[in-house]
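Hi all, long-time lurker, first post. I run a small reading group and we've been trying to get comfortable going from sequence to structure in the token notation. Rather than ask abstract questions, I figured I'd post a concrete chain and ask someone more experienced to write out its structure so we can walk through it together at our next meeting. Sequence below, copied exactly:
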Amino acid sequence: MAVYTEVSDADLAAFLEHYDLGRVRALKGIAEGVENSNFILSTETGVYILTLYEKRVEEGCLPFFLSLLDHLAARGLNCPQPVRMRSEGALGRLAGRPAAIVTFLEGVCRNRPGIEDCARLGAALARLHLGAADFEGSRANALSLEAWPKLFAPIAFRADEVKAGLAATISAELKFLQANWPRDLPRGIIHADLFPDNVLFLGDEISGLIDFYFACVDDLAYDLAICLNAWCFDPDGAFNVDKGAAMFGAYASLRPLSAAEAKAIPILARGAALRFGLTRLVDWFNVPPGALVNPKNPLEYFAKLQLLQTIGDVRELGVLP
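-- Answer (accepted) --
Happy to help. Here is the structure in token form:
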């Protein structure tokens, strides 16, 4: 979440004429994240999230995302639901951008998740995968293995500005992953961005999963690998095998991993680390002047990649083969 595009009072009023939400009480920008412009919208009828879609989100994919939210909510997953206009549509335009309003979920993020939090996340991810199994929509992963060299090419000459030798590290890892990426794993709808700031807690329980705008069809185990990187490293950069075991154990209690999936986790985790390192690197060099956004440090994910490159046995990540 972030704010790249400001919204005028007049534009907002015209946009809300299509809804039955009452008068605006407040609109506040959200600085976290890097992808879209997001606001907390308070009206006479309640509190909502207003999103203007920017950057990597293709307008043609928005019906997929919004339909997926409806589908998952119908399957019992607590996620934002699109607010419909009087015309029954959920997607409009505001300030020259595609825009939608979704329900606001109560809860706070755990920036430093513990072992039990990782277990709850693993179970929630399994429920997401199972709940989406009969979703009829489909979307290719626009940031899959094939996309990473294209992401890197325009900024390769600047990578060493961030850290000496980073360009060579990335180039070598791209070659390794192209040669060793697992094939024929179980596939389905994945969230693809389930970081701690996209999971809400009330007390000790997860109250909602948010920000589904990278959701796509890919290897289900790749979603686990993304979460492993995002949830199971301690603040000092060390991998916490107890967190990994808690997350994988809770996931597998609802959706058991195949032997091939378990074996693939170290490679998938390396790929996930490279993917987020690359997108952070791109954003590091391309934040528009004046944007209300906090770009994330790409070196965090390249440090995780360096550690993952030393993993020789999947048990070191808490995964039982």
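A couple of things your group might point at:
The first helix runs from residue 9 to 16.
The first strand starts at residue 24 and ends at 29.
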